[in-house]
């Protein structure tokens, strides 16, 4: 979108109009725009299903979810539903994200010699814990991350002072193409989050390359990871440091297989087809 | 709204749902939420009319207005329509804002000794021109204004260095109750805007108190003001300075009457009733 356009809502609204004007032509409408479509679902006969992509623990969401309990909802993890558990919503399935099999990066059978951190630099992602782990274990850390404008001050004060190449390296934002090599060539990927992560694509992207993940137990992590098989799920920074020492116990082939069996586009598509069939009635 | 709530859109969406769910109960729906309601208008049989309150010269508005040309629109000035003139929209009326007659402040027959500036401190309102006029004419200026967070730096750099009480005074934000005395006790109100003002309530609030307005020719100004009767409409800062010198020619009683005849709640209500009748068919 052009930088001269400041407001995305005219386009959200236009998109909803384009779809719901033609509701009768569709067997089913699959919405990915959170609550924006809910009022429309009562004004047309075509069934709608909404996949929720974000965190649901914001207090301003309660009134609208409370009013639209009948809306068909798909969560991207069971954990994602928790903040709204009191509302008795109409959850029709949890369907995990899947990576396109054709585009799964190459499998990297040999571990590299660095720890990888990939994601936004923001307080809820806790990149400073990744730095702490690198310092404690003596293993180099590479941070590939975007700094959003809102997180600029956090980066300047909490992260930048700790960057000391080559031990703690900040390589900035990387492209989709660079991701696979960055993750695949790592010893392990660190996922030190401290927020209700609804899914966490980085975990399956890393595992697809064969690189185990050391993660903190928040949000969806227990559903995506198999503790001791694809890496480790930890309750403290101390456990994360210990877990990095146990990375040689993890079979990189098993990490890849974990994704191939559970988190591919074809698994995801099959699950959605089943939901579509059910809702068409 | 509580400060812990960061996103207003769940409430906008909820509000639209509350109204359009019950569309059949209403003879007509009058929307004040810009384009948000447009897609809904095609999904219910109840006629809708939308009063537009903002500027319409933002490029992101074009596609959605283009798609919903049939929506019944009320502008708050003819000038407000101009940016969308190419789209052949369904304008059903221009209805000016009206002040509640019961709450019209007291009429101030005698001019005070200062120039008043009331409004936001923002570049498009050009408060620095008010300062320039005060300096050139030697008449004191009182600035009653809010500084939004986004305009803080503009205030610090462009306005604050010029504040020199008692000649140039910044009195901060004032309450609704204080407005009438602030405007009514002024010699004239300055309205040095440089943006497509859709209406400009300050002008009629000042005139209602009897205080003439010296304004720049932008947006709705020519529709709200009567040049030479309620103050002056100017094309340059030089003209504004000269106009301040001609304020004694203006009859403060005529300023008050101008509002009583054109810009009251009862005039506005009568105009809306006529639109409602027409649209109910």
Structure write-up:
The structure is a homodimer of 281-residue chains. In chain A, the strands form 2 sheets. Chain A has a 6-stranded parallel beta sheet, sandwiched between helices. Chain A starts with 8 loop residues before the first helix and ends with a helix. In chain A, 37% of the residues lie in helices and 16% in strands. Chain A is of the alpha/beta class. Chain A has helices at residues 9-20, 38-41, 62-67, 78-81, 127-137, 152-159, 176-184, 201-209, 221-224, 237-245, 252-262, 265-280; strands at 29-31, 48-51, 72-75, 91-94, 115-120, 141-146, 168-172, 188-191, 213-216, 231-234. The mean pLDDT of chain A is 95. At the A-B interface, α1, α2 and α3 of A face α1, α2 and α3 of B.
Using the CA coordinates, give the radius of gyration of chain A: 21 Å
Quick check: average pLDDT of chain A?
A: 95
Oligomeric state of this protein: homodimer
Arrangement of strands in the largest sheet of chain A? 7-6-5-8-9-10
| Largest interface chains and counts | A-B, 32 and 32 residues
Structural class of chain A: alpha/beta
> What share of residues of chain A is helical?
25-40%
Total helices of chain A: the number is 12
Biggest sheet details of chain A: 6 strands, parallel
Question: Uncertain regions of chain A: pLDDT < 50 for 5+ in a row?
Answer: none
Which geometry of chain A do the CA atoms define?
A: globular
Helix and strand pattern of chain A: HEHEHEHEEHEHEHEHEHEHHH
- How far is the N terminus from the C terminus of chain A? 39 Å
Q: Determine the strand fraction of chain A and express it as a percent band.
A: 15-25%
Please provide the count of β strands of chain A: 10
